[in-house]
Amino acid sequence: MAHPLSRLTEDEVARNRALLAEAGIATESTRFALVSLLEPAKAAVLAWQPGDPVDRRVRSLLLDRRTGAVREAVVSLTGGEVVADRAVDVAAEGQPPILHEEFDLVEEILWKDEAWNAAMRRRGVDEPRSVRISALSAGCFDIPGETGLRLVRCLAFLQLNEDDNLWAHPIDGVVAYVDLIAGRVHDLIDDGPADIPRTAYDYHLDGPARDTQKPIVITQPEGPSFTVEGDVVTWEKWQFRIGFNPVEGLTLHQIGFQDGDRLRPVVYRASVAEMVVPYGDPSPVRFWQNYFDAGEYSLGKEANSLTLGCDCLGEIRYFDAVLHDDDGRPHTITNAICMHEEDAGVLWKHTDHYNGSVSTRRQRRLVISFFVTVGNYDYGFYWYLYLDGTIELECKATGIVFASAFPAEDDYPWATEIAPGVGAPFHQHLFSARLDMMVDGLSNVVDEIDVRRVPIGPDNPHGNAFTRKSTRLAKESEAARLADGNLGRTWRISNPESRNALGKPVGYTLHPEGLPPLLADDASSIARRAAFTRKHLWVTAYAEDERFPAGEYVNQNDGKTGIDTWIRADRDLDGADLVVWHTFGLTHYPRTEDWPIMPVDHTGFTLKPSGFFDANPALDTPAPKPQHPGCCR
Asked: Which sequence positions are flagged as catalytic?
């Protein structure tokens, strides 16, 4: 009997398509933008017991390629029927994400368009198929004539040969707005030719390599310490369930820690629910550049097949991801998820000069990760679980910066010249982690903790004292917050109904990096559409239909359905079933060292137990085998 959260199988994806076809909903011109498990409500999952029946339901977002009509359908695989079907008002709600086939479609459209080819000839490019098109999400800018159209905005790069790194040759000053349903250029903006950089930067080709590196061999002769049963992973004292869907990619469910005879819940569901890359170049051909990689490009669909020795080292357990293609048929990404454990340095250590003892323990962490490629950028998402109860998320950004032609003047304020004539506009990578918290149960609260300096006075005569200030975030209107490094600001999620040995509420604390949130003006289109990026923290009362911080329909959505609209209800958060949304990320002023391919940059956050355990939960970690007698006792 399947668990309510068991990942979809190939047979289930195929059956979903067949049932929609039998019902006349899926036709020859239908494309499946999204197919995903309709996760049951939290209460239903928590109440489920092995042997209980499960109604397996699948939600599909469908696009008619001939008409542009969009439908949302829900199929009960258990009952063998369509249980919901509605038309989506794309003008009011937004468009489905961009399909894989549409990237090829756009090139065919532009290669045949005379006005576009004339713009290329003005730039000295006579062979249409040497021009490769980056089809980019259109956003929503209230441009007359665009309402209701399914659009992409297209920038171009010159490909010198089949092995060429085309990102090195931006064809600048021109952008095409393409209507994907009509199959034509809706508008063409030509701001004038710029020189096309033609120096080759083919980093990926074999060439001379240093010969100084000696092998590093990672082995676990007795195998890994984790066990896997279906989608459920047990490692050390941790237990959780793996999920995967086309929008978020990897999801972790029902994360709990074994404490004595209790498996104590910490997080019910954890994911990166959205990420957006807003660019800061206001030029007429680039002002619109900002991409929602989950909501507009279906992050999970872009997952890489990982390779041992290249992407992962050590004793690896891979998981395949069963998704779907544009026709709704099963599409399996092999080795989409990599899981392994690794040494993480010293866990704890003390040399005691009074009793002569020397004690050291090694930290380990379990790593659950996947990598995606979205256009020019590549992103790795790494969840870490530690022996001491800590949870971390690290996001790694690499790939190739989106290039522009750098103007002749050397003081262009919106980009870096990263190679002669090649610019890279300033931009940000902003992620939204959705943490459906369940700290020892469903009754949780959030407190904002700031350091507080204390002036010299009667209670602090020598001026050395400092303390902390705790503020309860009791309503949703109070819980949209910015990080503050000067105050060491953290947020503690605790359960007032569960107490530790000292009689205090058990809790976990979110430690943010506190780097800049969205830098675009508050009145801008992207600030409206990606309102979640304007604050580092949002806390909402759990609602089954609030899964994505920019709304269900992100592509060409005007921003009226995101997290900032949910909190207008101003629901009570004190002792409620809570979802914590954390915005974090990078502000990227590209460097010459980022070219022609960018070394990994890192961002993320940490969740640390704070009063959750009665003592260090890793005291029973075994001592390492010393290489010299008398240490590590």
From this structure: 293, 377
